[in-house]
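Render this sequence as a predicted structure.
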Amino acid sequence: MESYTIGQAARLLGVSVDTARRWADAERFPTRREGTRRMVDGPDLAAFCVQAAQEAGEGEDAPYTSARNAFPGIVTAVKLGTVDAQVEIQAGPHRIVSLLTREAVEELGLEVGARAVARVKSTSVFIDKV
């Protein structure tokens, strides 16, 4: 069974090490000691990730969509062509690049610094302006 340090768990959760420590101290996920290191067992961390994602989505005015893999982030680059466009979003530790029409980018008002959500279903990426 794979185990993670608090620092590794924090990176996987997309939070600071201090936040991961506070969550562990509050017993939101179990830890154990290996020498001086606090460790999180992989299955426990996986269960917490699912729970945290569900809690984060509660109460939000999410759009109705069949695409379940949502990556909220900030637009870091927009490259406009004559007909097409390339949009880059930084979603936590993830850099997501989507190719879409110029018209879609203009209709959504996507520009560097705008909040957006990349939705991934199969091999397609959908961008929702937040």
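Summary. The radius of gyration is 18 Å. The mean pLDDT is 85.
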